[in-house]
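Usage

Read records sequentially. Each one opens with the input sequence:
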Amino acid sequence: MRRIAPLLPAVLAFLAPPAAADDLLDFEHAMDAYRSSDYPAAIERFRALVDPGREPLPSRAIREECLKYLGAALLFQGATNEASAAFERLLVLDPDAELDEGVFPAPILDAFRLVKNQMRERLEELRRAELELAERRMEEYRKRLEELGEALRPRYLVRRDNDHSLFLAFVPFGVGQFQNGEDAKGWTLFGVEAALFAANAWTFLAWDWYTREAFAANTSDVRRQQAADYANGYKIASWAVLGTLLATMVGGIIDALVFYDESTSWQLLPPEDVPEDLRLPVRRPEEFLLPPDDSVPAHAPDAAPPVSLSWTWWF
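and closes with the structure output:
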């Protein structure tokens, strides 16, 4: 124990940031009391380091070591229940925590294993919760990479000159709509106007036929009267259908003029549709995001360089 324990402060000093110097000093004082078998003083100092009200809290590594030695010191003092509580806090902090057999005596190891066995189900739940949390973080990280990758993708804005004719906007049967790229509206107007045109032609021909029948010399008076009535009805229907057809045509022409595009349109093209010599360089999304475990890799910059997340290219 006396050969290994003195190495702990050095290891923790290597892992901890400079701001934890006071915590390391307090931990060293607590370890001095523990090594000299001054367990009451060691208990007091270890408890101060793991007190939830301490601001700021020491690093996780320091708290884990403090709880190990706090439990051992409490067992040396005969405070079994309090030692079990310290070991429980340690296992909640790290469900896979173990005590070093070369540092702690067998009674301490047995007491720790007993607590760990009693907490087996709870520790499994904690492991599952940590695994789910890690999976959620990885999923969020993946989504952020996808979103940032899309944001970093070059946008090539292309200007296209349209061969649109203003004359075609005055052509009925949806021609102006087809020119404007509104195919659904164009087919609707084409169908409605074609049906009205056919109905108008049929009612006009029927009107003309019954009119001739009404004035035929070889027709009886009764038949002549019936033909005159039919001719009058088809005349009204023909004018009504013709008026509806003209109104629909005028409406279609007005709509085509409202949405008429004179000569220019703009279109966003993906990089693969742009000549390779005109493409802009693309940064990898990983260069702008920290890993999901919040650790900063050695190659990560302190701040993202001032680059634009989208570009436009004008042909």
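Summary fields computed downstream for this record:
- The two ends are 75 Å apart (CA to CA).
- Residues 64 and 210 are 106 Å apart (CA to CA).
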